[in-house]
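Sequence in, structure out.
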Amino acid sequence: MRHGATTLSMLLIVALAGCAPGRGDVSGVVKYKSKPISGGTISFFDETRGVWSSPIDEEGKYAITGVPTGTAKIAVMATIPISLPGAPPPKASTAIPGRYADHEKSGLTCVVRTGSQTHIVELE
């Protein structure tokens, strides 16, 4: 009887571990009108587990690690340049429509899978 309880416990642990959400690493390029944007932030929103963000570099590239698997809504925000006294002028990022800053209005999504994947984000 004790052997059966141990086996059942082990099977339960394995089954519960298999139910845990996976994680994925997503990288790619953000484009506006087919050209990479320069600067900004991209965020992946999972309604039940939070938000994962990455800066967008001058070539439009981003990389986010540890995003839960499933469908994530995406927001893209341009950098707002702020001049500081004595500092070099900041580089302005590509101007994009404001709706992309709201993950509920952007219309952008990504189905995140376990492991690494590339996702190109096309803004219109």
